[in-house]
Specification:
The chain is mainly alpha-helical. Helix content is about 70%, strand content about 0%. It has 18 helices and no strands. The termini are far apart.
Length: about 350
Amino acid sequence: MVQMVLESPSRQRQAEHFCQSILPDVSRTFALSIRFLPGHLGRAVLTAYLICRIADTLEDDPGSSAERKICLLDRFMECFDDSTAANAFPGVAGSVSGDAAHVRLVHNTDLVFTMFRLLPGPTQQIVRRWVDEMVRGMQKFVGLYPQGIRIQTLSEYGDYCYYVAGTVGHLLTDLWHEHSANVGKSEYEHLLKKCEAFGEALQTVNILKDIAWDVEHENAIYIPEQSLMTYGSSQKTLLSPARVEQNRAALDSLIELARSDLDDALEYLLLIPRLAVPIRLFCILPLLFAHATLRELENSTAMLQSGGSVKISRDEVRSLILAGCVSVLSNRGVRRLVTRVRRGPFVLGTPH
């Protein structure tokens, strides 16, 4: 059972201010989407996201040994049940390395768990259940690859994506059911069939666009060695200019997986009742951004070059936000918009 703690009003305000202010620094995309979620649901998703981001930062820390990462993740899970452990965690985590905003988030884990303890009891249970599943999977892969994650097969890649992203699809779907009167038992059961694909599609697109970053900054390679070897390359030559053609060919299986998962993610969105407008709005933006990014990835090698990445333009981001909000209540309109985005850059005011 989660330890019950009476938080002072000033502590509550401090925690909420921190969580709201740190969000754009750790994920601009997520910050755009979450503003659509009201009240308890918005606070639940915000808190859950930040908790998952802390776990991810601990897993990715290039300066920690595998043993330390596994130990820190165990200590992190204790924060759910013990406010004393949560308040002490920033000191326990110590000199975590990585992106500055993510490190700052870890050093304020106590404030994030203050927010967690303010959530309704059933909501706390949902978040804890799926974060526990995520963390156990992270520990499994950290233990398998103590010198840095090196995914070997497409099957293993699928397992990894389930733990770090499929679990998020479940977590969100459980929160929709818990907090929205429009997501009843029948709707919830249908959403469960597609929820893992929703999370995993976004994860695969992020992995593909950030290949070079993951290699150079996090000592992690998620492109399966087996796929690279099939085309005459390897993880050791993933960023080699002499192997760009072979490495690009090896990505086809992951691009196809992302495309298939994005198809299921679209169906997930369309299964959300139209009356659940905030949830639809929350889901449509990352889905549109992912479709646009995958379109660019299909014809790019930038992510295979040192320091390279693939991004869509700010004009397209702004256009997709507007078009997504306009189309979100029409399943036909959403399908048309996705089809249009797949064809080429979508910028309002330019010829289609």
